[in-house]
Amino acid sequence: MGLNVFSLFLTFSIASASLPDLGYPGWTCDPSLYKKSQQVPTSAHSVRFSDIKIIGALGDSLTAANGAGAPKGDPLAVILQYRGLAFQCGGDSSLDEHVTVANVMKKFSPNIMGYSTGIGSANVWEVSKLNQAVPGAQAADIITQARALVQIMQNHRDIDIKNDWKLINVFIGANDMCRYCEEKENGIHSKANWKQNVTTAIQILKDHLPRTIVSMTGMFDMRMLRQIDHDKYFCDGLHVFECPCEKKSSFTNDDVSQACHLYMDAQQEIQDSGIFDTSDDFTFVLQPFFNGITIPPLKPDGEVNLDWFAPDCFHFSRLGHANVAKHLWNNIVQPVGSKNHIVNLSDPTIPLNCPDATCPFIRTTKNSVDCSKYFTA
Questions:
Q1: Which CDD domains does this one have (predicted)?
Q2: Which of the residues are catalytic?
């Protein structure tokens, strides 16, 4: 590492360390929840959190954590992919300092592998590991990401494709939405096309990754962006390039919201169809906590809390990733049919929940109906 690069990295590290964050020091659950199954489960509906050996992710710049550690007022740092802070798959530090789904999973499965660390792109294994998210990706692009993820896992000597249980996180849709107004409903960003692209990507995982649970983070209502950058001319100017449809005045708030809800409906339809519950060793679960949120995180005085965002007012800051990760985790431990569809992003005191000791499995459509049938002797 050259001196200039080292100095730049050190500057970012020092600045990042002072940014607001959210951790849960000393977080513990009922001791029974940390136990692995006596025998490796054969059903996706009887997988304990401690049974998961592999964690991965597909998505766009939000999953790649662009700008998550960017110093305030430095929009150029938003190009950096702070994958170690990513809400689904980041593994920098520990849960005491920073919430991510991967950091919570370390509590249950200390040897879990696949989480990303540090700063870098998807093709740098030492950083990305199994977080294959690519900035700028749309739903069609996670098909390629799914293939890449499969290939990496098939070729990795420490991954037992047939026997290791895997948790793959998916979050996609923001970039589709930012181009939706250019194509309208019958274009490439239509609900039907978006749904087919997501389905194709998940099918690739199903075809090649036995013993896998796919957890998809629900789409969010992007009309929030217009509240976030209101009267913030710097952010407003950046969004012209980052999200053209947000800046198109003829594409109203209602238009934005309705289009986002079409994607939400598509996700729900994929889960409800049961097409990924046709074999016992694979399942798909939607985590819909974002769906009903229309208000961005606010300060007590009612102003938008920009601590939650990177300097471009679009991507999540490290605090934003931790906050999102907390609500995503809480969704994961809630049964299907009883998951939160709206949460209060402004309240940092909302607890990080433990799995249900009476149904200690990763919640799926089937074990949410009758958990008792998935206990083994």
A1: Phospholipase_B_like (cd01824)
A2: 61, 176, 315
